[in-house]
């Protein structure tokens, strides 16, 4: 684990990119809150374990149940929980928001924060892709891929509460403004 002092050195304040996606009939996306992307938010020098950096950063900010893997190669979303994806190694081309969403290339150091309902689908990736994911301390993980899940998702997505902290920048993070109900 890098520790708090090292984490502070590695996290670089970035302006958030925000993306809003319409319901496409299969993927509801979030009705109010945008997906947030921080490009190059985390410096990953050779002397650190990049996955451990993301795990420590996310858990420090209250996002847990972490995992290390990739991004599924099919369209899916989570209707009962938000998700953060930290790109620890490699690159990937990911379509966010469902079939009518937006294709983004993400690379090591980038972070994507997906409010409940946001579709995601890995289209391609480098062979060394490593993603660290995590979730806020409330909500229930589910995996939605089928049209018959859509109606129930429309009911559950708006009920998933806003996290208390941004997974990258903590209690001062842009997520808290972008995901406000004001």
Summarize the structure.
By secondary structure, this protein is α+β, with helices and mostly antiparallel strands. The protein has four helices and nine strands, in the order αββαβββββββαα. It comes from Mesorhizobium montanum.
Provide key terms for this protein.
alpha+beta, Jelly Rolls, Cupin, YjiB-like
Q: Give the number of domains.
A: 1
Helical run tally:
4
Overall SS class: alpha+beta
Largest sheet: 6 strands, antiparallel
CATH class: Mainly Beta
Write down the overall mean pLDDT. 95
Distance between the termini: 37 Å
Task: Name the CATH homologous superfamily.
Answer: Jelly Rolls
Write down the secondary-structure element order: HEEHEEEEEEEHH
| Relative helix content | 10-25%
Tell me what portion of residues adopts beta-strand conformation: 25-35%
Query: Taking strands numbered 1, 2, ... along the chain, how are they ordered across the largest sheet?
Result: 1-2-7-4-9-3
- CATH topology grouping: Jelly Rolls
What does this structure look like?
By secondary structure, the chain is an alpha+beta fold. The chain has a single domain (3-178), classed as Jelly Rolls. Helices cover 16% and strands 26% of the residues. It has 4 helices and 9 strands, in the order H-E-E-H-E-E-E-E-E-E-E-H-H. Strands 1-2-7-4-9-3 form a 6-stranded antiparallel beta sheet, covered by helices on one side. Helix 1 crosses helix 2. The radius of gyration is 15 Å and the shape is globular. The model has no long low-confidence stretch (mean pLDDT 95).
């Amino acid at each position: 684990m890098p520790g708090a002092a090292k984490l502070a050195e590695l996290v670089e304040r970035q302006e958030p990119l925000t993306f809003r996606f319409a319901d496409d009939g299969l993927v509801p996306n979030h009705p109010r809150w945008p997906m947030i992307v921080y490009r190059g938010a985390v410096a990953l020098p050779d002397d650190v374990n990049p996955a451990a950096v993301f795990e420590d950063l996310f858990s420090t900010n209250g996002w847990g149940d972490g995992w290390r893997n990739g991004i599924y190669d099919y369209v899916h979303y989570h209707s009962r929980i938000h998700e953060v994806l930290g790109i620890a190694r490699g690159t990937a081309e990911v379509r966010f928001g469902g079939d009518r969403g937006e294709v983004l290339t993400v690379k090591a150091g980038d972070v994507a924060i997906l409010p409940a309902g946001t579709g995601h689908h890995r289209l391609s990736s480098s062979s060394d892709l490593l993603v660290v994911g995590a979730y806020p301390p409330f909500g229930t993980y589910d995996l939605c891929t089928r049209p018959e899940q859509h109606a129930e998702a429309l009911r559950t997505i708006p009920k998933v509460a806003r996290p208390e902290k941004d997974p990258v920048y903590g209690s001062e993070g842009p997520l808290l403004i972008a995901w406000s109900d004001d």
